Amino acid sequence: MEIWLNPGCSKCRTAVSELDAAGVEYTVRRYLDDPPTAAELGEVVARLGLQPWDVARDKEARQEGIDLPKDAAHRDDWLAALAAHPRAIQRPIITAADGTTVVGRDEDSLRRVLDAEG
User: Fold this and answer.
1) Collapsing DSSP states into helix, strand and coil, what is residue 67?
2) Inter-helix orientation angle 10-22/107-117, to 10°
């Protein structure tokens, strides 16, 4: 299991606490220090069944100057913009070994990824 997180984020700290309580092994990726590539983001949003703009934090995206149409023609532009400005990416993003991926901001999402892990 891998978790993309920002240690200053309360939702990320909650997710880590839940993973620890469940006793699962995981690796941490501090995505602000080690930003994902556009290709990695493309894989993650595909596993989530979402579009890149669905994992963008609206306020941070605006602050970073990301003002793109939310349509298929601009999908790659969104991926590139989020890779260049990782602060605008929702967090935490958790991927289980089987590929199940969630934005772990709520109990149901955390449960889904933990159930997938084992």
Assistant:
1) coil
2) 40
pLDDT category, 88, cuts 50, 70, 90? very high
Please name which of 8, 56, 11, 66 lies closest in space to residue 32, comparing C-alpha atoms. 8
- Best CA proximity match to 5, nearest among 108, 81, 95, 76: 95
Q: Quickly tell me which residue has 């997938």 as its tokens.
A: 116
30: number of Cβ within 10 Å:
14
Amino acid (1-letter code) at residue 81: A
Cβ–Cβ < 8 Å for 21, 14: no
**For the segment 8-66, what is each residue's pLDDT rounded down to a tens digit?**
999 999 999 999 999 999 999 999 999 999 999 999 999 999 999 999 999 999 999 99
The residues assigned a catalytic role are 9
